[in-house]
Amino acid sequence: MASFVFRRLIAAVIVLLAATFLMYMLVALSGDPLKELRESSAPNKIELMASLSQRLDLDVPPFFRYFLWLGGVGQCFVGACDFGVNVQGLPVVILLQQAMGSTLQLVTGAQIIAIIVGLIVGITTALRQYSGYDYTITFASFLFFSLPIFWVAVLLKQYIAIGFNNWLSDPVIGVPIMIGISIVSGLLWMSLLGGASRRRWITLGVATASTLALLAYFELTDWFTTPSVGIVGVVITALAAALGVTAVSVGLKDKNAVRGALVTAAVGIALYYPMTYFVFRSMSLPLFFALSLGAVVVGGAIGYFLGGRDRWQSARTSAIVAVIIGVVVVIDGHLLYWNDYVNSSRVNGRPVATIGSTTPNLGGNFWIQGIDTFTHLLLPTIAIILISFASLTRYTRASMLEVMNQDFIRTARSKGLTQRTVVVRHALRNALIPIATVIALEIGALIGGAVITESVFGWSGMGRLFQNGIDHVDPNPVMAFFVVTGLLAVIFNLLADLLYASLDPRIRVS
């Protein structure tokens, strides 16, 4: 394996060298960076042109200028990266660091959510092949896959941002809309769970009634004005997570895993009030990460000590339950400060932002800043999720259908294994092999596609850095963008190759 990794790294270096050379030449020969100064009427334009030529080494032919740039990049191996300067004379390394943080903040959460949702929906559509649910998801996937992201972004601005902000001034749902949403929810759950005719009708009735009751509760309590999860919501979520995650992970017949998950849920419920009224008041980013790590460790430890013979499976299950409970409690912590954020002078009752990454001069504590980050990330994240989700869902569905028709799946069923075991332990593991390649390519494409997303939403990240470099015929910012994107593509493709061997023991590397 070490030899394989070494060979792949050598090949990646050669590919990156060829690609960066081609990109540098294309940018350098695409125009004249001195054009604006030549057409300027400034009295000192000769001095300005000479200064810019010196900064960008314009007196050196592009072929040799590339190797000057490459020499600066090569200093990264000794911890002194030098990507040159842009047309304004600012170091590109500093600009890249700022842009990378902004772009990674934008795409990381969106990609994680898209992968999780895409895999889940793709698996369920494969298991419910040719059902109404399958046809609906297939139609939606092809629709979102064919839509350009800039048009999706405009629709989100109009109906999610402007429309929702207007609705918040008088948040009334209305009986017809409540009934319509409840029926759609019931049909979705009926199609998703499937089963015999009697079971489908029961699912439809229960899901419709539950959704209608929840919406009525929101309406009667004016929930959208003063939102909160509360202890009741935490209890329901904790118990549902304990039973649901255990059912999917190891099955409810494993009493030790069920016990560990329920104990984890009980611990999370018991810590709700102490965390809300004591710890959350002095919350900071380091403390938040420490508590997050602590939740995973405590949940895993509970599952491990109560897991019996399958300790590690129980530990994994309890850790996931702890993460879900922690997410719900953190959401409730943010909702406690929702009114303070919405009614602040900088937000002025319109919380969903349409442009930028932060509200200027907002101030506030950890929770206020968290809400502000969320409201600015909401629209671009949804846009990225919709586009990525469409392709991941289709690939996952196709891969699962192919695996489910294999002989080893029929053998597993003939041995009397449960549907959960067949799907989770046998089919899914093999279906993930081609999906790993798709995800690796998606990540590289996502960073590259950030140019359009950031332009629409006014996000100052790597896309803006790339666009400015193209506009000013400045190769240095463009190359910084290209190097980061290329490295991510190479690294994630290498990780995908290594993941193959982990998912399929038959794969061996000579």
Please characterize this protein's 3D structure:
Helix 18 (419-457) crosses helix 19 (462-471) and helix 19 crosses helix 20. The mean pLDDT is 86. The protein has a domain at 172-221. The protein has helices at residues 2-28, 35-38, 45-56, 62-74, 92-127, 132-146, 149-168, 175-193, 197-220, 230-249, 255-270, 272-279, 285-305, 311-335, 338-342, 366-404, 407-414, 419-457, 462-471, 475-503. By secondary structure, it is mainly alpha-helical. Pfam families: BPD_transp_1. Belongs to the binding-protein-dependent transport system permease family. Its main location: membrane.
Write the layout of secondary structure elements.
Elements: H1 2-28, H2 35-38, H3 45-56, H4 62-74, H5 92-127, H6 132-146, H7 149-168, H8 175-193, H9 197-220, H10 230-249, H11 255-270, H12 272-279, H13 285-305, H14 311-335, H15 338-342, H16 366-404, H17 407-414, H18 419-457, H19 462-471, H20 475-503
Helix pairs in contact: 1-20, 5-6, 5-16, 5-18, 5-19, 5-20, 6-16, 7-16, 7-18, 8-9, 10-11, 10-14, 11-13, 11-14, 13-14, 16-18, 17-18, 18-19, 18-20, 19-20
Summarize the structure.
This protein has 510 residues and is mostly helical.
